[in-house]
Amino acid sequence: MTEFRWPVRVYYEDTDAAGLVYHGNYLKYMERARTEWLRAIGYSQDQLKTGEGVLFVVTQANLRFLKPARFDDRLEVRSILRSAGGASLGFAQSVCDAAGEALCEAEVDVACLDAATMKPRRLPEQIRKELPDAGR
After folding, report:
1. Would you call 131 exposed, middle or buried from its count of C-beta atoms within 10 A (0-12, 13-18, 19+)?
2. Which positions are catalytic?
3. DSSP letter, residue 120
4. What is the pLDDT, as a whole number, of residue 129?
5. Which of 1, 3, 44, 47 satisfies CB 3.0 to 4.6 Å to 134 for a cystine?
6. Structural domain boundaries, residue 42
7. Mind giving me the DSSP string for 42-102?
8. Are 86 and 11 in contact (CB under 8 A)?
């Protein structure tokens, strides 16, 4: 399995009253990393919607919070494609601190939808060809 890594800096707006990253923002960091993973294999969300007629939506997310991140921390989101079905992708993701220690771990499942009907649709073959071995 190939691990994709995406850097994130914690901004003031990401924190709560205690000065810690608000729990919902970990999902935002992971979403950005999955979007950048798609770019890294040659696809933008916009291109997929207009050119291929597909969208990806989260169907399930299971997060485990281990340690807090704080304002101005440098973080790294790590994403591994753990499965690929006919119309779905499963990711193992983690948000790690500068030392590489996991602060939040997640399993996130996404479905491929037809952009016009919003119904499940098979992954386009050209995307399937670009997936790491674990996704085939």
Report:
1. middle
2. 16
3. B
4. 87
5. 1
6. 3-135
7. T--HHHIIIII-EEEEEEEEEEEE-S--BTT-EEEEEEEEEEE-SSEEEEEEEEE-TTS-E
8. no
- Amino acid residing at 86: G
- Report mean pLDDT in 10-residue bins for the chain, 136 residues: 91 96 98 96 92 96 98 98 95 98 98 97 90 62
Of 91, 80, 70, 56, the residue nearest 8 (C-alpha): 70
CATH for 108: 3.10.129.10
Number of independent structural domains in the chain: 1
Strands 74-84 and 3-9: antiparallel
**Structure tokens belonging to residue 34:** 């999955």
Chain position carrying tokens 């790491």: 132
Cβ-contact 124, 54 below 8 angstroms: yes
Listed in sequence order, the residues at least 6 apart from 129 whose beta carbon sits closer than 8 Å to its beta carbon are: none
